[in-house]
## 1
Amino acid sequence: MQFIDLKAQQARIREDIEARLKVILDHGRYVMGPEIDEIEESLANFSGAKYGLGCASGTDALLLALLAKGIGPGDAILTTPFTFIATAEVVSLLNAVPVFVDIDPKTFNMDPAALEKTILAMESGAGDLPLPKTDNLPKPKGIIAVDLFGQVADYARIEAIAEKHGLFVVEDAAQSFGGLQNGKRACSFGDVACTSFFPAKPLGCYGDGGMCFTDDEELDKIMRSLRMHGQGDDRYDNVRIGINGRIDSFQAAVLISKFSIFPEELDLRQKAAERYNSLLAGSDKVVTPFVEEGNQSAWAQYTLKAAKPEWRDQLLKHLQEQGVPTAVYYPKPLHRQDAFADLGYAKGDFPVSDDCAARVFSLPMHPYISEEDQEAVAKAILSFGVK
């Protein structure tokens, strides 16, 4: 049983991928070839954004967004501690300060109520909420909300809070490309949206890749410049300090081919998630995923919570013995990572994140998972007995 089966997907489109790669070998434009424009336009149209900008990774997408917004020393960016390090890493790389906000226990996404309380505490310097331990608390400039495990965050509330306090919003959609919220696609929220095309993502390439989305023409122009070393009118005219953040033509070609079957794969993921929900409905050992009304997850992962923290490791061992692969995202929240020790956060500062980190685990999930495999996974979970 595969946790993520990329071979089954490749079997459907192998000939098309090879044909597209041959075209690139023939035209020889390995960097910024015509495939880049094609995938940028296709994915922007799909998401509902005016502009799509391909880049080298999801991390570079986040970095480009913050660079374009002029983030640097003395600035603070509010984000969640229950995510991959890249979300906050880019903030620290720019010598700005990540300020963490706890999550909703059901969706695992940023809790808007906690967000506003944190902003107010930063503005007033009062309150008992955990804040970075710095002599001069930096000024909040923006928010990076994360669409964890495929479900879009509560942008109606997050964007309203941001507007009230004069902050910009970045949608970290690394796991949610293809998801929906009230008919609106992931990557169409905030000032800039960023996604990843890491191979395991719902839409992934065969290496690293990412994309930024925005409706702001000026932001798009700035990010395009930043992507190519701050390029101006030509490659030797540099108008700002940028990065080498380009996606290559081969990866764009893979994405073009994969995107041709992506809508169908989203439907298959949804059916697989519904099947898991039905099969596990009777378990008192795990809590199945919660999806907000009006949302449709992209199901980057199918993530359960052990009913009790002390059961998770027992469950994982039991599933391993039954031949079921699992993964844990994310066992150590960012506020407890050594990389952010200088912020002075401690275990317990974000109790929901700490609790989820101790309880969540993900099951095999991909568009081509068989009913038989899902039934075997469910049978293994339902046969678990507490020791």
## 2
Amino acid sequence: MSSNRSLRVAVVGAGPAGIYAADILSKTDLDVSIDLLERLPAPFGLVRYGVAPDHPRIKQIIVALHKVLERGDIRLLANVDYGVDLKLEDLRQFYDAVIFSTGSIRDASLAIPGIDLPESYGAADFVSWYDGHPDVPRTWPLAAREVAVLGAGNVALDVARILAKHADDLLPTEIPANVYELLAASPVTDVHIFARRGPAQVKFSSLELREMGHVPDVDVIVYPEDFDFDDGSMAAIHSSNQTKQVVKTLTDWTLKDPADQTASRRIHLHFLHRPAEVLGADGHVVGLRTERTALNGDGTVSGTGEFHDWPVQAVYRAVGYFGSPLVDIPFDDLKGVIPNNGGRVIDVDGDQVPGVYATGWIKRGPIGLIGSTKSDASETIRNLAEDVRADADELRTAAEPDPDAVLAFLAARAVPVVEWRGWELLEAHEIALGAAVGRERIKVVPREEMTAIARGEQRTAPAERG
């Protein structure tokens, strides 16, 4: 193969990790042609489908990602499902290198009795539902008056807030109509968040925690007996301003007069309670059993043997995300990631898989914010570029490097590809739907409808949809 032609690179996954990787690669001194493949008809991944609709501040990340893709030097090929529409051997025909940035979208497991009862849900699935993910059913069972949320991170806060918040307060957001209707009919009065460690060990951000305290007609209730600080806790407070702010907010809430807490809905925060069992009767959730824990002195906890039963009719586990295996790609089933060295994918023997790379959560696990994602992408691209410079001809292995070749291949398989112009059509349609009812945007949810609009095959007037 000649090194005179452009290096052809496919990035699989058009969330922040994939877009950052493509952007960084495009700014190297390599002569490169980049395609960004996405399984869904719309780009932006978890920023579009994993951020609560009442957090537009975080969704502003999409603005920056949008600017990268609208430049035109990175080609979007959405609605292309890796492992179904094409596999690694197909990608190798058209690309010299492939970067997987498919993220972590499954719920991590929680091995306690009763966790598989019908009203026990994964938070990731619930988030996908209220964010209008096209692969999730449009209905959700919201029959519980009392709900338990297991976890001590921002996803737990999001789930609790969306469940407790009055649906009308979500109308200014891009919440889909079906989600609004079901939330409006929800009978929920109390949402309980359970954290197995103490207030100084939770992973809430101080901003999200403070925001929860300002939700209309929702009281946040904490329990002084759940507050304990060991040496490890004090060290965490003194070493992190974020932890200090979180603890201050939580401690301030302990000073609230119960007589002033008259809201119709409540979010309860319980610390030092480890989920032990989801209680069931007649095949349905009727409660949650927790074990009181005690701090060990270093910020870790141990069980005390003291148990509490809480009457709840639904349980949501928000204990983390987990990656999904990809066809023909090595996978670590314990960590939920693609095994790699600095983004270079490795096989079971520890040898580098030629031309295959990873970035984002599927590379390092579901930790870190946008800053971590950028630095992570930089490392992967740096190593890819190093491999190219070491032997440009060896890495240029694509048999059909013409950019049109992959489009012809997908067309032959009747894959309805959505390119950037198609996304712009879909985005304009969603904005028009919102404008028709005085909202910023209303997401189109059904996948077939999204694809039809993006490909110019459906032009439903906003007034007809309401």
